[in-house]
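Query form — protein TonB-dependent receptor

QUESTION: What is the three-dimensional structure of this chain?
INPUT:
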Amino acid sequence: MTRNKLALSLAGLLLAPIAGTSFAQSAPATQDQSQAAPSQGNAKQLQTITVTGSALPRVDTETPSPVTVITAQQIARSGYTTISDVVRSISADNSGSIPNAFTAGFAAGSSGVALRGLTVNSTLVLIDGQRAANYAVSDDGQRSFVDLNTIPLAAVERIEVLKDGASSLYGADAIAGVVNIILRPNFKGIEGTADVGNSQHGGGFTKKATFLAGAGDLDKDRYNAYFSVQYEKDNPIWSRDREFPYNTNNLSSIGGPNPGVPGNNVGSTVGSITNPATGLLQPLRNCTPGTQLVTSSAGSYCYQDLINQYTLVAPQMEQGGIYGRITVKINDTTKAYLSASYMQSKTWSVNTPAQIQVTTPVNTTNITLPVGNPSNPFNAPAPINYAFGDIPQGNNYTNHNMRLVGGVQGTIGEWNYNTTAVINHTSLDTNQFGFINYQALVNAINNGTYNFANPSSNSAAVRASLAPGYAKTSTSDLDSLDFNASRSLFDLPGGSAGLAVGAQVRHEAQNDPTLNPNFEFQGLGNATTKGSRDVAGVYGEFDLPLLESLEADVSGRFDHYSDVGNNFSPKIGLKWKPLDWVAVRGTYSKGFRAPSFAENGSSSAQGFVTVTPPASFQALHGGNAYSSSPYAISEYTLANRNIKPEKANSFTFGVVVQPTSWLNASVDYYNIRKSNVIVTPDYGSALAAYWANGGTVPGVTITPDLADPQHPTALARPALLTGEYTNANSLKTTGVDVDIQGHWDFGSVKYISELQGTQIFEWKMILPGGIVQSYVGTQGPYNLSSGAGTPRNKGSWSNTVMYGPLTVTGTLYYTSGYQEIAEDVGVGPGSCLTLNGAGTAFQPGSCHVGSFYDFDLTGSYDINEHIAVTASLMNVFDRKAPFDPANYAGNNYNPTYTQSGVIGRFWNVGVKVKF
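ANSWER: The structure tokens for TonB-dependent receptor are given below.
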């Protein structure tokens, strides 16, 4: 095919030995490609590759759709050691992304990517172009996604990120884009790495190792076989090892609340009790070490900072696994391969001790010790405030991912074909400990079997009866068979027209047992998901080089789902090259997302959102703790078997320029409109109506909390909101991606620089009745995953210098700040998500969370051709995470974007060998 100067120079840049070291390029370089920049005369000798977003092998790697490529070399230079960290560092990853640090979420123990801020269920994750089984537990009990922790990084050749809708080829879920993790097709030799690292501020010691070995030459031996092994263990980081405000939830020193004060539904480990005669608090016993006696107008109590003593800012994680692949060359035109992997990811986390005072599933905020209970010194029932410090509470998650893939590739006549079979099974073991059984609590209080005044006297059997623990195993499956073929059709002025066709059948299933059987455990939400379906699809793509300067690409896919029916998704892309060094590109596509099993199966989910009642409600209760303190509201959502798929229309428009051989840049605008958005009921409007006058909205039932003892006739707080998933909303998001890359050769010194950034222009949810909620630049949508918000800008700037055996890379990452408001949980004056007892914002910056940047420095030195030493210093300037008291995934910070700011400066040293 005829290609102009831009295509050739881009290919030359991508194939050159010093190909970019930062995180965005126009397209990938494969292992088999030549290292020399091509000329017009050898362009046809370039080996064709298939770029994510196209089913057609092509020489011109610059497709109509924007594709970011992260090579194995770039990953090594980034200093990141997990797929999760690599993928989530992309500037297009935004609202709804799932960090490993969010151990209190439904999908704890996992990590997910959310391109364009459309949550994890609108980004399709592929491995070698094939689907993978979803995590066995849904995010927020609703959204299905692929866990990035169970993908073998040691075998990765490159990661391609398509920032464009791609349902026309891949089917459901590819609304925001596609992350295609491409593993090595072959390997010969031996490579190994070993690294250790630690945090300057304590905790988080890490050790990791990889090993890769392979033999055989496809051309000479007619086979190649290799395997990889990887292991990493990260120790936990305790909150107490970090500075204020990450090590406490007592914000009284800066005018904020102190949830450790009795009466705010949070007790101290040693406990406090209310004297029925005086109504004043008094300790059950002398305050033990780690607590302090506090005397106030409410009485005396033993204060203890539970966050400081018991919680983590980073969980303990252990990941590892093995991957192997064998490829056999059957004849000159046919080869077959078989690959298998087993990956395991373990996450261990602990929480604050269970409270005797909680609001769900049974409200025990007014629980009392009866007369005769050994811990009650009074002759009347005595309200008690208590936390079970002698019973550790937390969770262990172990995710197993087993994947078997086999395929045959070859040529028959003019057709190139590829058939692939996938069997993928995941199994997640969840073990939760320390959660209090409600009935056992009632029995212990009534019978006096648990000693609140002297916890050390309680036997192991007594503690086990209160917190018996619970274990469950959740599974997910994906089995698929895919066949596709491509060929050239006829000549056009710009080259040969290409055709690709394909068909796919697959089976999907998920079985996630209940998290809280019969709602027996206090302070714990609930979710259960069960469902299965069969999917059959056919797809096709035409590539039409209409002129040497104009290319059109047309594709479409038809799918039949056994549970939601049929769908057709078309796409058209155009690329125009008015000059040798300029390409203008654009696409228009329709996409869809089939409902998850949580949304239309035999499923339900109960989650919590922390709110502070508005000033008007506080006034009804005299501003007491009942009405002014933040507390958790339960939202219980049921699956809807009549739910419809989400639909999307999107287009992109971009320009790629390469005025010189050493500089190329691209700017791409995106516009996505999604309809039939599947959402939980309008809990926000229901709450607003309830706060106003005790009213509600259609589709939501509100169960009130127990009455305020001080104002029993006043409107009670809402405790439980119930409804079904519904196709209620539509949304629109627009923005722009910018990538600029330059590389310079100064003889003995080579220098590469790249700037990558994403700016979101708008992110709006349109509710029934035309109500518009705008989230960009705010902490909304707050009722989503970890409440991380939607920063307007995100970017990175990477610079690499190579001098002989030495390579040094410095990368600056930036995330813009945002207003600490969220229109999905309230708007207007006083809507700041975190308020003090007076109902006003207290945090510095007037309800604004600051921007964050950190700088990472990595390097390697080749001692000889076989041995290299490596080192990295992450967060070189020890930047601190901006204060964000509203985020409920981290303690006073946002781990989705600023986890490195709490970990602090972190070093790694290692060695790499290859033969």
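ADDITIONAL NOTE: The chain has two domains: 5-236+315-352+394-434+469-603+639-680+725-914, 241-311+354-387+448-468.
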